[in-house]
Amino acid sequence: MDKLIINGGNRLHGEIPISGAKNAALPILCASLLTADDIELTNVPHLKDVQTMLTLLQQMGVTVKKDGNKIVMNGNTVHNFNAPYELVKTMRAAILVLCPLVARFGEAKVSLPGGCAIGSRPVEQHIKGLRALGAEVEIKAGYIYAKAKKLKGTRIVTDMITVTGTENLLMAATLAEGETVIKNAAREPEVTDLAHLLVKMGAKIEGIGTDRLVIHGVERLHGARHDVIPDRIETGTFLCAVAATGGDVTLTKTRDNILESALNKIREMGADISAGADWIRIKMEKRPRGVNFRTTEYPGFPTDMQAQFMAVNCLADEATHVIETIFENRFMHVQELNRLGARIKTEGNTAFISGVGKLVGAPVMATDLRASASLVIAGLAAQGETQVNRIYHLDRGYDRMEVKLTAVGADIKRVKQ
């Protein structure tokens, strides 16, 4: 397993290009199952999760042609409706093939998903919605079996806000007969990006960006071209890195209207933020101020930014607290941050951070995707050498993070093992 070695203390200066959003690209790749025509995608990030999804889709019969960050996909020869455990176990988003397969082909066999060990993320809402659309669904031997001659439009009210659940059911409804209403729908920019692609493919969707989606099913969908939105979590992660180390960095190929809650907290920390149509500039000249926050569904503060902001809070004067409301096991980075000299205690879903002013490098171990990003941020600000082990988690969601950070002055290198 590769590891990162970081010699902290360098201020960051320069430009960092932001990649396409992982959490937008994964459902968009699955939309290729809905049509026999070409789907041409640009700004697709080079990530382990993206490659895993492409491997899964190719195994089903989707043809994939790559040219830089452009991918052309065609689902005309899909013949295999099985998503095996070997591929699904590493990536929860693989559940997103379920509804497109049933909607277009009338059947699917999909392994129950895996992914990061940050908490329970049940698929009951996907199954409940698919059954409401008229599919027969059963679970046996670790697999979801679903069948339907033709899905029928219906009214779906999810018990909780679920991003992948909304995306899966949205794709199913595009080819269902009649009108489907999805209430309590997730409003994340990644859901909206999928909806915009589906409209380009001929879907009829009302209420995009709201918690009530109305879909009028069509007989078939056609090909389309689409540019994946910038990754708001990667954007926020690099903003946190500069907030922790100080410096002056411009993030390019991104925009500020997809992470307003996080930007407001960065400003509270004392950063000077300016933005244009496709860039965000951060200047940080002083020690960060601590901020309190509570994670919640979009447009609230994202759970995927909790660990990174906690790393910055460790460097503040103020005592702060963080409340995690989405995932019950999302404080696994706390003990690793404490190894670097942080002072954090947890009680239930709340973490209490006593700012220490400085961190000191040490070997640490990444436990999940966003936890690994928080350890990189802490290492960049720490005195001495930090080794971040098990960075295969990091590679699932960040496109060559160490290369981008080196370009703005960080002393960080990947060591192959």
Automatic annotation (TrEMBL):
HAMAP family listed in its UniProt record: MurA
BP-aspect Gene Ontology terms: cell division; cell wall organization; peptidoglycan biosynthetic process; regulation of cell shape; UDP-N-acetylgalactosamine biosynthetic process
GO molecular function: UDP-N-acetylglucosamine 1-carboxyvinyltransferase activity
This protein's name: UDP-N-acetylglucosamine 1-carboxyvinyltransferase
Segment forming the signal sequence: none
Domain of life: Bacteria
Gene3D superfamilies in UniProt: Enolpyruvate transferase domain (3.65.10.10)
Listed GO CC annotations: cytoplasm
Active site: 116
Amino acids binding UDP-N-acetyl-alpha-D-glucosamine: 92, 121-125, 304, 326
